[in-house]
Write a structure and sequence with these properties.
Elements lengths: L3 H13 L3 H15 L9 E3 L13 H10 L4 E8 L4 E6 L6 E3 L5 E3 L4 E2 L6 E5 L2 E2 L5 E2 L5 H8 L5 E5 L20 E3 L4 E3 L10
Parallel strand pairs: 1-2, 1-7, 7-10, 10-11
Antiparallel strand pairs: 2-3, 3-6, 4-5, 8-9, 11-12
Bound molecules: the ligand Nc1nc2c(c(=O)[nH]1)N(C=O)[C@@H](CNc1ccc(C(=O)N[C@@H](CCC(=O)O)C(=O)O)cc1)CN2 and adenosine-5'-triphosphate.
Length: about 200
């Protein structure tokens, strides 16, 4: 079993080692897998905008697909507060103005704020995930704090270029499991155990 710290290092490296061509085709396959997910019941979809220097999966084609085929879905993006690792959520529309923060994340400057309680679908950035849907992020707990404020039924859908690993060694009581993870090859379902962590 590997620790989150080891996995962070390993998967950061794996992403950086992808060629531009590999990355492009993996991103295309992620879009094709995403298109298999039923979205008719979704009202508010939270998305992350990729940190390009870390080679995160590209969410822009996914966002464009949702805008075109599910125009009723309200897209939501966040600003991160690094003093308490919280996030503020804003509606994404054609007027949204972005500023790239010091970590290379494009963030909305202002706009209509949305409460986490109404968000019913979250696209989750990750470095790695395990066979039970536990995830490894950058280690600040932004998403675990965010999930704790959302409804139990909210879909938490991870996006990863790579397949799951065996169990993460240092799961903790704040870990909120994913409901699904999308990889270029397939979609993993982790059932709907609400926010039950069973770490
Ligand atoms: N696209 C995207 N947005 C996101 C996240 C994410 O993973 N991806 N986050 C998910 O939580 C939050 C931001 N999380 C972050 C947490 C830590 C660092 C950070 O410490 N960066 C350092 C060192 C990075 C490293 O370990 O190499 C740096 O840039 O100096 C950056 C972002 C919210 N928004
Ligand atoms: N709901 C929460 N309330 C308070 N602290 C939390 C909460 N969720 C996570 N934390 C803390 O945040 C820190 C980072 O968590 P962890 O190592 O699990 O991050 P991670 O899995 O890499 O995820 P993330 O992408 O969210 O940073 C831990 O010290 C954890 O205790």
């Amino acid at each position: 079993m590997k620790s989150k710290k080891e996995l962070r290092q390993e998967f950061k490296m794996k992403r950086c080692q992808l060629s531009k061509e590999d990355e492009e085709s993996l991103n295309h396959e992620l879009l094709l897998q995403f298109q298999k997910i039923a979205l008719t019941k979704v009202s508010y979809m939270h998305v992350f905008l990729p940190i390009q220097k870390y080679h995160e999966p590209n969410t822009y084609p996914i966002i464009n697909y949702v805008k075109e085929f599910f125009p009723k879905i309200i897209l939501v993006v966040s600003r991160s507060n690094f003093s308490d690792y919280s996030m503020q959520h804003y509606i994404l529309d054609h007027q949204t103005i972005f500023e790239t923060n010091e970590w290379g994340i494009p963030e909305p400057v202002a706009g209509v704020e949305v409460s986490p309680s109404v968000i019913d679908f979250i696209l989750v950035p990750l470095l790695a995930f395990d066979v039970d849907g536990h995830r490894v992020g950058y280690g600040k707990g932004f998403y675990d704090r965010f999930f704790a404020l959302c409804a139990l039924e909210t879909q938490r859908v991870g996006l990863s270029f790579f397949d799951p690993i065996g169990q993460i060694a240092d799961r903790n009581e704040h870990d909120v499991v994913l409901t699904k993870a999308i990889t270029p090859n397939r979609i993993y379902n982790f059932g709907t155990h609400g926010r039950d962590t069973s770490f």
